[in-house]
Amino acid sequence: MSDGPDLLPLGPDGLLLRFSDRLGDAPNRAAIAFRAAFDETAPEGVVETATSLTSVFVRFHPDRIARADVETAVRTTLDSRDWSDADLPAGRSLWTLPAAFGGAEGPDLEEAADLAGLTPEEAVRQICEVPLRVLALGFAPGQPYLGFLSETWNIPRRTEVTPRVPRGAVVVAVRQVIPFANAAPTGWRQVGRTAFRCHDPKADPAIPLRPGDEVRFRPAAPSDLARLETEPFGGATREALA
C-alpha cells in the first residue's frame, strides 16, 4: 500500500493526486484543503478539479496546456505547505438535517446498534450528537459520505444487497453515514430517513453540500417527514462555520 502523496496520470486529460489509498481523517483533510488551495492558482487550461475520499482529480485541456505544466503546478502547490495536518478551507457550512430513526423509516436500526454494541436509543444519540464532515460526494449527484463516527461504528457492510432503499434513507457502515440522494440498492444498513434532498434541480444551489461541510442530524418524528418534504432543503438549516 502507498502512503502517498502520489501523482498519477488519469486518461489523456487528467491527473490524480492521491494522498493515501486508505481512508482516514488526515488524508481526507489534505485532499479537501489541497483542492481549495490549487483552485486559487490553477493555470489557464485546467478546467476541473474534484475530490474523492483521499484524492484530488485535476482535468485539463491538452490543447491549451501541456501535461508537464499541470504536473509542475500541482507539485508547486503540494510543496507549498505541510498537508499532513491541513486546515480545512474557509467558507464551509454546518447543515442540520431532521431525520426519523427506527421503525419503518429505519428498519435496520436495531441490527446496526447491536453490531455497534449499543441500544437503539444510544445509537441514535451517537449519530446525532456530533457534526459529521462531508468527506466526499459520490455514487449519485450530491450524495455525501459523512464521517467519522466513533470506532464502535466500524461495522461491516452487509454481505447481501438490499434491493432498494428510498431517497433520503440514512444508512451506516464503516464509521460513515450516508443520506441517499435517490432510491437505490445498498449494502449499508438503513437506520433512518430524512426529507433532505442532496440534489434538487429546482433549488439554489442544486447540490447544497460541499466536501468539508459538516452535517448534524436532528431526531424528528416520522409524521413530520411529509411536511418537511415541502420545505426548502427538506427542512434542513444552514449556518456558516468560522
UniProtKB/TrEMBL annotation:
Coiled-coil regions listed: none
Known Gene3D superfamilies for this protein?
A: 3.30.1360.40, Cyclophilin-like
Q: Does the keyword Amino-acid biosynthesis apply?
A: no
Q: Which residues form the Carboxyltransferase domain?
A: 5-209
Q: Name one GO molecular function term.
A: hydrolase activity
* Domain of life from the UniProt record: Bacteria
Question: Keywords in UniProt for this one?
Answer: ATP-binding, Hydrolase, Nucleotide-binding
| KW Oxidoreductase (keyword) present | no
Pfam families given for it? CT_C_D (PF02682)
The record's section on InterPro entries has: CT_C_D, Cyclophilin-like_dom_sf, PxpB
Q: Which PANTHER family match?
A: 5-OXOPROLINASE SUBUNIT B
Q: What is the official name of this protein in its record?
A: KipI family sensor histidine kinase inhibitor
